[in-house]
Amino acid sequence: MLNEIYAETKDHMEKSLEALKRDYKTLRTGKVSPSVLDGVSIDYYGTQTPLSQVGSVTAIDATTIAVNPWEKNLLQDIEKAIQEANIGVNPNNDGDFIKLFFPPMTVDQRKESAKQAKGMTDNAKVAIRNVRKHANDQVKTLHKDKDITDDENKKAQDEIQKITDSYVVKADDILKAKEAEILKV
Fold first, then answer.
1. H or E element: which one contains 109?
2. Which helix (H) or strand (E) holds 29?
3. In terms of residue numbers, what domain contains 75?
4. How many domains does the chain divide into?
5. Within this chain, do residues 110 and 176 fall inside the same structural domain, yes or no?
6. Tell me: the pLDDT tens digits for 55-102?
7. Which one of 30, 37, 55, 69 has the minimum C-beta count within 10 Å?
8. Which of 63, 81, 101 represents a domain boundary (last residue)?
9. Residues 166, 110 share a domain
10. Residues 89 and 111 in one domain
11. Whole-number Cα distances in Å, 35 to 14, 32, 56, 180
12. Backbone angles phi, psi at 38, to 5 degrees
């Protein structure tokens, strides 16, 4: 019974860390990533479709992304969608594909990205603590229903706190690595 609660707690906390890593992909680092365009979609035959599903999106080098549509008639739609997404660059359409030239990040932009990463990490820690609260509530319910003893209740809450502490440390470690990546010139 308690082992199931521990396993479920770890699983939910792991998902919080995975969500944090997904959030980090939207941040700009020193090297551009095609994931910068993940939120951009176009109207493809009446359906909002992500760019990655209507063409190839690749990083050519540290500051350039190319979007090569599988249907050339989509070039204008893609160009317009990128402009409307307001990602900080203007698309260059050469008739075959679209290139996005990102200027190198300034020190202030890097600090701002690092600050955003910290905010995302704080949100992940809140999610981890919410999982802890839910697990503790389950344990308290078991104790109230006399399914576990006072000692088991105390041990279970201590174990849940240990699990929580380990995941908070993991979130901080992920943040340190991301900050180093962002601030590296």
1. helix 107-144
2. none
3. 34-101
4. 2
5. yes
6. 999 988 888 999 999 988 888 889 888 888 877 788 998 888 899 998
7. 30
8. 101
9. yes
10. no
11. 22, 8, 12, 19
12. -60, -35
